[in-house]
Structure to design on (445 residues):
């Protein structure tokens, strides 16, 4: 293992087991094929080329799940003419994980144009995953033309409102939020007062030691508002989570990994399984980014999340489809 | 103005006054006549997650056509309540047209990417 992978916490000013300088270092690495793991309060970054050195068994927690995002089934432009193939590759990746995930989270943009056959294709491909349960939240591409009615018919069983819900798995409380409906001109993603009231009530009776995972399509933090990469009323939602020791926020939408730690909240965005998008502000628009064909699977991927009871934070590991 | 001429040009005096107005108006006169012979049609391009031109000024009766040139679907939706117009989702190269029959300021946006906004001023 090289020097960087065994770095210990040196700058834990908040006493929360999170080394901010280490995190920044990790983020700088992210673009060059590294991934970052938070384990028992120690941040570790691993070069993708050293994956063989990485003992996945050690990372195996009591709960393991995988986040996938932005499959955009139906997309057929040069940035990826075969989104079916790359989604299948993501499923192969999931099935090859040394710790099989217990379920999948799909953080939206299942389809590209909200067409029934697009949803059908994704459902069919995901049936090939070792994990049988998939928990969805919609992306803006899943609620085109009908304000999300079709999405609710397909995926909204046991959900509230426009499709929000919560569930518990091995002591971890999961909250799926919808922030892609009723968007206002000039604005960002929106949760809305009804959903916020539900969420406040949903977490009120939980012990502060309960680990929380919040997942939604559009980032619940201000990634790049100029491109609409944020949610205007996310601060209210996060306000309800202040008392909790460990909060992990998982989003999609921006088709690239990004992480931020703020107090006890770790924010993370996942890669797409369909096509990459440019880094904030690095292109005239956030449209699909065309990369050389042999590079495509290096910028698509899945996110593997592990939780060990008693540990402070969840381990979030991104891996590409390459 | 077109309506008035049709309805009221019945007496010599009205005709004379109108002729005077039209003569005084000069270039405006030409514009009005041009509108009558060829109803205007104008195009708005949707490209790089923006409407261009973002602000368009048109005479009453103009049909505006939006064309999506992005690799990502967009919509064209009036911000008025009730909405003056609302396209279905436009995939690449798809178009949406709307004819503005009333004067006013018509703000619109893409309901998928609400940062995308535009205005049509109808005079
Ligand atoms: Cu749009």
């Amino acid at each position: 293992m090289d020097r960087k992978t065994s770095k210990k916490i040196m700058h834990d000013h908040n006493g929360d087991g999170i080394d901010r300088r280490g995190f920044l270092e990790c983020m700088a690495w992210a673009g060059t094929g590294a991934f970052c793991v938070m384990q028992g309060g120690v941040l570790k970054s691993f070069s993708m080329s050293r994956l063989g050195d990485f003992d996945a068994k050690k990372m195996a927690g009591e709960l393991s799940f995988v986040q996938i995002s932005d499959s955009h089934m139906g997309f057929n432009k040069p940035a990826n003419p075969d989104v079916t193939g790359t989604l299948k590759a993501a499923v192969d990746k999931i099935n090859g994980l040394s710790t099989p995930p217990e379920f999948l989270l799909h953080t939206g943009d299942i389809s590209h144009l909200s067409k029934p056959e697009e949803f059908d294709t994704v459902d069919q491909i995901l049936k090939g995953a070792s994990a049988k349960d998939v928990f969805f939240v919609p992306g803006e591409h899943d609620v085109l033309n009908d304000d999300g009615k079709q999405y609710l018919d397909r995926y909204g069983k046991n959900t509230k409102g426009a499709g929000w819900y919560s569930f518990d798995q091995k002591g971890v409380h999961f909250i799926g939020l919808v922030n892609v409906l009723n968007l206002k001109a000039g604005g960002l993603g929106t949760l809305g007062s009804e959903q916020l009231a539900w969420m406040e009530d949903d977490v009120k009776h939980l012990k502060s030691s309960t680990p929380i995972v919040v997942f939604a399509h559009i980032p619940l933090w201000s990634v790049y508002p100029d491109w609409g990469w944020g949610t205007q009323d996310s601060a209210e939602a996060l306000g309800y989570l202040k008392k909790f020791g460990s909060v992990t926020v998982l989003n999609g939408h921006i088709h690239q990994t990004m992480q931020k730690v703020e107090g006890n909240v770790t924010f993370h965005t996942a890669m797409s399984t369909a096509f990459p998008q440019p880094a904030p502000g690095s292109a005239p628009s956030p449209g699909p980014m065309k990369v050389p064909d042999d590079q495509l699977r290096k910028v698509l991927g899945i996110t593997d999340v592990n939780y060990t009871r008693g540990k402070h934070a969840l381990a979030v590991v991104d891996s590409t489809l390459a | 103005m077109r309506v008035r001429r049709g309805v009221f040009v019945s007496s010599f005096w009205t005709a004379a006054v109108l002729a005077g107005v039209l003569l005084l108006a000069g270039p405006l006169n030409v514009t009005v006549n041009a509108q009558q012979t060829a109803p205007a049609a104008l195009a708005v391009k949707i490209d790089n997650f923006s409407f261009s031109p973002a602000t368009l000024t048109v005479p009453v009766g103009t049909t505006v056509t939006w064309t999506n040139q992005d690799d990502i679907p967009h919509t064209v939706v009036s911000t008025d309540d009730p909405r003056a117009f609302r396209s279905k989702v436009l995939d690449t190269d798809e178009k949406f047209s709307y004819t503005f029959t009333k004067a006013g300021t018509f703000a619109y946006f893409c309901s998928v990417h609400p940062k995308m906004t535009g205005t049509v001023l109808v005079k």
Notes: Chain A touches chain B at residues 77-79, 112-114, 140-141, 144-145, 183-188, 226-228, 284-288 (CB under 8 Å). Chain A has one domain: 38-320.
